[in-house]
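Duplicate of #3305? Posting structure anyway:
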């Protein structure tokens, strides 16, 4: 599962890329519950030049830490959805959700503009 960022991303070296692919897959996701029933979620979002680069194990072009907390919530079924929604809400742009992240196959749905 991942997202395609349809807008242009300017890298630190000044190069610009469009339709990049980002995913939390392969990285650690930390979920901590405090005694006050607040759940903190921390994860690293990795971005590749495109989905093909991800599937072919090409280098990551950007990483971003996504951190947020929710109160009295259940994250078991919605963890990835919460993470991607948090990323999209903090980054202006147009996105396309990728529902399946399997080598050689993907299904896309739900385009979003923030």
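Output from current build:
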């Amino acid at each position: 599962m991942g997202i395609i960022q349809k807008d242009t991303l300017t890298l630190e070296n000044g190069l610009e890329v469009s339709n990049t692919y980002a995913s939390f897959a392969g990285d650690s996701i930390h979920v901590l519950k405090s005694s006050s029933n607040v759940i903190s979620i921390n994860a690293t979002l990795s971005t590749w030049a495109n989905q093909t680069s991800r599937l072919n194990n090409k280098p990551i072009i950007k990483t971003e830490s996504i951190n947020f907390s929710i109160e009295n919530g259940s994250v078991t079924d919605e963890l990835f959805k919460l993470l991607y929604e948090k990323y999209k809400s903090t980054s202006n742009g147009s996105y396309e959700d990728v529902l399946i992240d399997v080598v050689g196959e993907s299904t896309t749905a739900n385009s979003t503009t923030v």
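Confirmed duplicate; merging threads. The chain has two helices and seven strands. Confidence is low (pLDDT under 50) at residues 101-108.
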